[in-house]
Design brief:
9 helices, about 15% strand, about 280 residues
């Protein structure tokens, strides 16, 4: 598996793929995979130079965002719709779309526009049924030879995200996106405080340890050993918080978001040593 993310250049603009490239290079480090002899092609997506490789061949794909897969994957009793999810997977596969980006984290939040139910609260899983939905989604994707990119946090408020983590450690303070009393970029600047808040990051790592160390309740396979998971993304759309404009604070958190993304403590491997960062 690869750990991926996004980074910010000196111009204060988000550049996609920089952290992902770093993680891919890390994934190529020798000695990170199994050394046992096997005739079975590697089912994990690997990296060879600048090329993704799967089963010894270049891995090229068309992907899309199915962030809600874990929610649809819940059983009907818990509000899911597995029939619809399977139908959507079949439709995507039939049209050549084989790489899906999926939500792997949602935090119970005081923010007005955050989704409910969420998966976790203060770093602890409290909605196991949603993770069972993720188990189901991954099991169905494996049947169709699809790959998943799972994101573990969010710069924005709709799944809870960084502002929610901050509210858990700062006495309950937060800013709602779109609140007229806090015009742009106040929300973004508030969210970007996550990159330098050790307490909020500790709760994040506590949750990440649970999700990347999980065993799929349907297949019995540990997430760490599941080649359906192509990569983990540290967060959805992490960014410095401000491009400037009237505030004159261009890139105020740019010096923080990149070190946070690159720091080993942010990576799933550091909180669950049995979970590979590199392909096997």
């Amino acid at each position: 598996m690869l750990v991926s993310g996004q980074a910010v250049g000196e111009d204060g603009i988000v550049h996609f793929g920089v952290v992902e490239l770093w993680a891919c290079l890390l994934a190529c480090a020798p000695g990170t995979g199994d050394t046992g002899d096997t005739a079975t092609p590697n089912e994990f997506v690997e990296v060879d130079g600048k090329q993704f490789v799967l089963r010894g061949e270049p891995y090229r794909y068309v992907g899309t965002n199915v962030w809600y897969a874990a929610y649809l994957g819940r059983d009907d009793e818990h509000g899911g719709d597995r029939t619809r999810l399977v139908r959507e997977f079949d439709l995507l596969r039939a049209n050549g779309i084989t790489n899906l980006r999926i939500l792997g984290a949602a935090e119970r939040s005081p923010l007005d526009n955050s989704m409910s139910p969420a998966i976790s609260y203060r770093g602890e899983v409290e909605q196991e049924d949603i993770l069972v939905g993720l188990d189901f989604a991954l099991a169905e994707m494996a049947k169709r030879d699809m790959k998943a990119v799972i994101f573990l946090n969010n710069f924005w408020e709709w799944s809870g995200g960084m502002v929610t983590y901050l509210s858990w450690v700062n006495g309950g303070e937060y800013i709602n996106l779109g609140d007229p009393a806090h015009p742009w970029p106040e929300f973004a600047l508030f969210s970007a405080q996550f990159y330098s808040n050790a307490d909020a990051q500790a709760l994040f790592r506590k949750y990440v340890a649970q999700i990347v160390g999980r065993r799929n309740t349907i297949t019995g396979e540990e997430y760490a050993d599941d080649p359906t998971i192509m990569s983990w993304q540290l967060a959805n759309e992490p960014r410095p918080g401000d491009r400037g404009g009237a505030t004159g604070r261009r890139g105020i958190h740019a010096a923080r978001v990149v070190p946070w993304s690159l720091h080993p403590s942010s990576a799933p491997r550091s909180v669950a040593m049995s979970v590979p960062v590199s392909p096997r």
